[in-house]
Write the structure tokens for this entry.
Amino acid sequence: MTSSPASSSDFSTLPLPAHVLANLQQLGYLSMTPIQAASLPVALLGKDLIAQAKTGSGKTAAFALALLANLNARRFAVQAMVLCPTRELADQVATEIRRLARAEENIKVVTLCGGVPLRNQVASLQNGAHIVVGTPGRIMDHLERETLDIDTLNTLVLDEADRMLDMGFYNDIATVAKQCPDERQTLLFSATYPEGIAKISQQFMKEPQTITVQAQHEKSKIRQRWYEVPESDHDEARLNAVALLLNHYRPASTLAFCNTKSQCRALVAYLKNKGFSALALYGELEQRERDQVLVQFSNRSCSVLVATDVARAGWIFRSWRW
Ligand code: ADP
Ligand code: MG
């Protein structure tokens, strides 16, 4: 039998039990992604962590393996809690945790999100949960009603923290975090690093290590161009410049930003009139409407998405299933 030296991206370099390593192999996780390689050694020491890496970089497994390492399956009590911005993300996280936990005996993961009756969730909690994954609002509901007991919690995860802040969950996160036992590990995962994150970490984390894995763009793949279109009495000249550029470059998908909602609408109306499939996205739309717009953009039935707020670009891309 030959053995090759373990590289630093081998899961086997981590202090994980053999059955966990075998399960990772079965899942096809043959080596760690960069954010996993950077964050797992720290997280598995029980330290608080702020980890930042782009969408799709494997952040879920990075915190899931850490919270599972803290877990005692024979203890029938909630030991880990993951806060997520939306129900869809909570479902994805719960699925990934279950996959990673399947090598262990019967670990129960319960999702707690709005939009479904409380009583089913209460029943699941009464049946025993080791890990809860949910949105801050619904978790707060359960804490207020005392249907969720987190006195035995040892790991708190804030997933997609930037998006939770973007959605106005700061106070909810604070309310939940204050009720967690002081003796705990707190892991914060995010694709970007807006201001609010420093505030969360100061208030709710203990000497967190910050780990950032920058997205590697192949330089040759991104070309930036700048066109100056003079201000004029005729907005039409500016709108037409956009249409001309789209006709010239013919991109399959375009994300355009405007300062205001009315500019967004004007551009969308203009482009539609010119035969483009364009849709507007702005803060005042309801979540359901925004989701519909993003679905149409991601399935390419809409080719130009015109949005108001550059700061939201991050979550537009994250919501976009490539
Ligand atoms: P993020 O939360 O950073 O957006 P995810 O945790 O959702 O990313 O992971 C993206 C995808 O990569 C998932 O399908 C996951 O199963 C897969 N994945 C994660 N870690 C590994 C790994 N080490 N090897 C192979 N695939 C992985
Ligand atoms: Mg994620």
Q: What stands out?
A: Residues 59-60, 159-160 surround magnesium ion (ligand 2) (CB under 6 Å). The chain has two domains: 11-212, 235-319. The two ends are 41 Å apart (CA to CA).
